[in-house]
Specification:
Blueprint: E1 11-15, H1 20-31, E2 37-42, H2 54-57, H3 60-63, E3 66-70, H4 76-83, E4 88-91, H5 98-103, H6 106-131, E5 140-146, H7 169-188, E6 192-197, E7 199-201, H8 210-219, E8 224-227, E9 233-238, H9 239-252, E10 258-261, E11 266-268, H10 269-280, E12 287-290, H11 305-309, H12 318-331, H13 333-339, H14 343-357, E13 360-361
Parallel strand pairs: 1-2, 1-4, 2-3, 4-5, 5-6, 6-10, 7-9, 8-12
Antiparallel strand pairs: 9-11, 12-13
The structure holds nicotinamide-adenine-dinucleotide (NAD) and thymidine-5'-diphospho-beta-D-xylose.
């Protein structure tokens, strides 16, 4: 947003806007009621859910400023059409789950690398149109990346200029996507900014990920499959803080720069599970120690002073965010029970069947 209250980018193309973080970004930007119009392109994979935008549909003023396109970012025709009408492109679209990338990596390359390439090419076409006067300015491109591109960080905190050492098919594909985005800044002078966010949690989080999986399983008194010793460490960031930081970088980020978005809430997985069970009033005996994730990154931690210098700080205290998240899952059971059916059952069996059969009580 500019100082006059008018949006810097009045027409946004938001890819992956029906997913967890993308839908939060769309809901929050439209709720500002500053006149921003958003086109969402989302393939509606197993992780995408049109219902994540229901709060927008419920308000006629907001829904009039949202256009939803069911489409693939790797589809050049769809992307070109909507990039032509956008002042900025914010790319949330991705295959995002590490465990699925271990089971089946190919979809990750297609969306997280090739999809980014198609989006960048569409922006490059628009840059050329701007050069010949067919539009006012080239679109800005924001690539949503992840702390996982640094790989496992045993001590200290990753800074933006550190080496990228991704270790899973997911994080390697994400690193490929963001390096490609950076190359379009260097090579073609495209206006590119990149964010690397920490492990994000909050409402509308697909129940395949640690926090929503364990909360929804525990509500049903189902076993909680903790990988290995459970002493892996993650830095947790509330979803509205992550979406807000992305909006801040979109508006204020320096072209060509990358910004870490840390949560500054480092916890072991065991600490997370203990807190969830406590809030739900459920026993630790639900927790099973299962075979570890292959190549499991032990720890992520980032320094986000560059983002702080740009004027952004998180606002959600961790205990409050976690409590609000657990309560949301208690109150929105239709949302996740719908997801935990159909394809989900096959996935769950593939991912956890043998693991749980060979599990032992977690001490
Ligand atoms: P998500 O899996 O919940 O949502 C991804 C969305 O992208 C879904 O709506 C899906 O339908 C859509 N999508 C997938 N492939 C597509 C394609 N080819 N074309 C169009 N749409 C497609 O993911 P999320 O947790 O909301 O993550 C959003 C972004 O943030 C991702 O780029 C992810 O790598 C990154 N990120 C996530 C976290 C986290 O903890 N969740 C942390 C840091 C960064
Ligand atoms: O069943 C489980 N048991 C378990 O012990 C699951 C699903 C996870 N875990 C562990 C693995 C990790 O140490 O919990 C931790 C968190 O796992 P995930 O929720 O799968 O997240 P992670 O692998 O850390 O990746 C997340 O953060 C960075 C997002 O899924 C990525 O999209 C993001 O880039």
């Amino acid at each position: 947003m500019t100082e006059t209250g008018t949006p810097r980018f009045p027409r946004l193309l938001v890819t992956g806007g029906a997913g967890f973080i993308g839908s939060c970004f769309v809901r929050d930007v439209l709720a500002r009621k500053d006149g921003t119009n958003i086109t969402v392109i989302d393939k509606l994979t197993y992780a995408g859910n049109r219902a994540n935008l229901a709060p927008v549909d419920a308000d006629p003023e907001q829904s009039a400023r949202l256009r939803f396109v069911a489409g693939d970012i790797a589809d050049q025709t769809v992307v070109a059409r909507f990039a032509a009408e956008a002042d900025a492109v914010v790319n949330f679209a991705a295959e995002s789950h590490v465990d699925r990338s271990i089971l089946d990596p190919e979809a990750f390359l297609r969306t997280d690398v090739l999809g980014v390439h198609i989006l960048l090419e569409a922006c490059r076409t628009e840059q050329e149109r701007a050069r010949v006067g067919a539009r006012a300015a080239a679109p800005r491109f924001l690539q949503v990346s992840t702390d996982e591109v640094y790989g496992s960080v045993e001590t200290g905190e990753s800074r933006e200029d550190d080496r990228l050492e991704p270790r899973s098919p997911y994080s390697s594909a994400k690193a490929g996507g963001e390096l490609l985005a950076r190359s379009y800044f260097v090579t073609y002078g495209l206006d590119v900014v990149i964010t690397r966010g920490s492990n994000t949690y909050g409402p509308y989080h697909h129940p395949e990920k640690l926090i929503p999986l364990f909360v929804t399983n525990a509500i049903d008194d189902q076993q909680l499959p903790l990988y290995g010793d459970g002493l892996q460490r993650r830095d947790w960031l509330y979803v509205a803080d992550h979406a807000g930081a992305i909006g801040h970088v979109l508006d204020h980020g320096v072209s060509g720069e990358t910004y870490n978005v840390a949560g500054n809430n480092e916890r072991t997985n065991r600490e997370i599970v203990t807190a969830l069970l406590e809030h739900l009033g459920k026993p630790w005996s639900l927790v099973r120690q299962v075979a570890d994730r292959p190549g499991h990154d032990r720890r992520y931690a980032m320094d986000s002073s560059r983002l702080a210098a740009l004027g952004w700080t998180n606002t959600m205290p961790f205990a409050q965010g976690l409590a609000a998240t657990v309560d949301w899952y208690i109150q929105n059971q239709d949302w996740w029970r719908g997801i935990k059916s159909g394809e989900w059952k096959d996935y769950y069996q593939r991912q956890y069947g043998a693991r749980l059969a060979g599990s032992r009580e977690a001490r």
